[in-house]
Amino acid sequence: MNVVVLIPAHNEAATIGSIVGAVKRHLACEVVVVDDASTDRTAEIARSAGATVLSLSCNLGAWGATQAGIRYALKAGYKQVLTMDADGQHLPEAFPSLLVALASGEADVVIGACTQRGSHARQLAWIYFRKLTGLRIEDLTSGFRAYNEAAMAVLASPEATLLDYQDVGVLLLLRHARLRIKEVPVPMRERDHGSSRVFPSWLIVGKYMLQTSILCLAKVGMNGKRQRAYSDD
User: Fold this and answer.
1) Are 41 and 12 in contact (CB under 8 A)?
2) Cα separation of 137 and 111, whole Å?
3) Higher-confidence residue: 79 or 121?
4) Rounded to whole angstroms, how far apart are CA atoms 24 and 27?
5) How many CA atoms within 13 Å lie on the side-chain side of 52?
6) Buried b / exposed e across 91-114, counting CB within 10 Å, b at 16+?
7) CB count in 10 Å sphere of residue 133
8) Hey, how many other C-beta atoms are within 10 angstroms of the C-beta on 172?
9) H or E element, residue 109
């Protein structure tokens, strides 16, 4: 199985050991924990559970850690990568459904979607960003995903380094590269420990909405120019 599971983690000592163990029970593949400059025992526990640990020297955020893992996977020769959060929301037993969809050749990216988990505010944000971007994705913020080699190459690019989150910006980048995105419904649980790294406070939510809106408008404009360029050929 030429696939690796990536788990970005920052101070997830309470959950990372059981999550690595659960992945290993369901998939016979390498599990890589990208330790995002944790100050607790995340790296030590992940390594004891059997994971390969990449320790970052400074905190890059969830997307920066994920991109570091994707670059590792490409360098190691992997053709597919699976990503999941370290807070216990994602269930490793759902990975096969993502891999089957990816193997069908119908998509370059498969998102494990669970729209029921979203709060009312998150549902409104999804509607807003779908209208702004034209993306026909129901669960825009799910980090439970499968990428093939073409998608990995796009996401390892310097342009992707400019992103802060693994959601709308990443999806726009993939669409701009003309890659195919598919959603597969999966179950999710409440997080086992801690709070969201993406939405830890209303101030951060406001910053996220502003940054992502600007990014969406820039990418929508770029796509328009690209479409006109193709039309002129």
Assistant:
1) no
2) 9
3) 79
4) 5
5) 12
6) bbebbeebbebbeeeebbbbbbbb
7) 23
8) 23
9) strand 109-113
- Which region among 74-78, 149-153, 173-177 has the lowest average model confidence (pLDDT)? 173-177
Closest residue by Cα to residue 80 from 159, 176, 5:
5
Distance of alpha carbon 60 from alpha carbon 110, whole angstroms: 24
**What distance in Å separates the CA atoms of residue 208 and residue 202, rounded to the nearest whole number?**
10
Q: Report the helix count and the strand count for the chain, using DSSP H and E.
A: 9, 7
Token couple for 27? 């998939």
Contacting residues for 232 by C-beta, under 8 A, at least 6 apart: none
pLDDT of residue 232: 36
Report how far residue 27's alpha carbon sits from residue 6's, in angstroms, rounded to the nearest whole number: 13
Q: What is the pTM of this model?
A: 0.84
In 3D space, the residue among 9, 48, 221, 27 whose CA is nearest the CA of residue 133 turns out to be: 221
Residue 205: per-residue pLDDT: 67
At 70, which amino acid appears?
I
Query: pLDDT per residue over 177-218, tens digit each?
Result: 999 999 999 999 876 565 555 555 666 667 777 777 777 777
Number of Cβ within a 10 Å radius of residue 180: 15
